[in-house]
């Protein structure tokens, strides 16, 4: 869904007020919520894990110093990640990282299709490009199996195996439940790039899930 | 009956995210929905996509190691002493 990014929530504003008043627990709550994801994003702009950790720490300091100016025109997390990305870019530039930042969120060109082409009928068949081997419904799969540790672990592995830009977009959208507008805003990427990255990521996760649930059916 | 205006399954699976993101122009959306009405395979594909998205939402985030928290507590205290 496109549209305007959400403004700060009442919870966001309450957190900001508490932190400005010096509430350590409120700050650490925010840290717990965002730190791991911030580290992942920072790592895309700099060469080492140690530098990424440094960047995240600098970003938090930037957040604290900027709190007085937080007007709530975006969600708090969008604002925090925006500071993070800017901090990471500045640091990456100083390190003279060779990869240009414009390409960090650009989808690569040579991507495989969402579904194995062998699953569709070919030109000589009766219905070219329609399913030859259609997917099977998961309606009969018990919810406990879908939500089991094993199934979720497979999904986690599929996400971890993605190229970093696809991986972080699907994490923000589907793990953390950010809206498309928030992600575009926080990472400063185009709507199209975000959608292409999300599409590739989700298509691969679906494939992994299909292959895992299929294994179960045949044994 | 298949006409060139109809969407085929191979095309649909590549448009599924645009559809779910509500980013398809109206005529494309209509073509896709017309295809879904007639195609069980693609209807199941769409359901699978929705299930995959829902299950990804059940994954949990990594935990921060204690030294990371200690470092940020220091940052916070420094900032407080600045003010």
| Overall shape of chain B | elongated
Task: Tally the beta strands of chain B.
Answer: 0
Structural class label of chain A: mainly alpha
Could you report the average pLDDT of chain A, rounded to the nearest whole number?
A: 92
Distance between the termini of chain A: 40 Å
DSSP helix fraction of chain A: 55-70%
Helices of chain A, by number, come to 9
Helical fraction of chain B: over 70%
Question: Based on DSSP secondary structure assignment, what is the total number of beta strands of chain A?
Answer: 0
Quick description:
The complex is a heterodimer of chains A (219) and B (83). Chain A is mostly helical and 219 residues long. Chain A is built from nine helices and no strands.
Textual characterization of the structure:
Chain A is an all-alpha fold. Chain A contains nine helices and no strands. In chain A, helix 2 (24-43) crosses helix 3 (49-66), helix 2 packs across helix 4 (76-94) and helix 4 runs parallel beside helix 8 (180-187). The model of chain A has no long low-confidence stretch (mean pLDDT 92). With 83 residues, chain B is mostly helical. Chain B has helices at 9-20, 26-38, 40-56, 66-82. In chain B, helix 1 (9-20) runs parallel beside helix 3 (40-56). The longest helix of chain B is centred in the middle third of the chain and has 17 residues, at 40-56. Chains A and B meet through helix 2, helix 3, helix 6, helix 7 and helix 9 of A and helix 1, helix 3 and helix 4 of B.
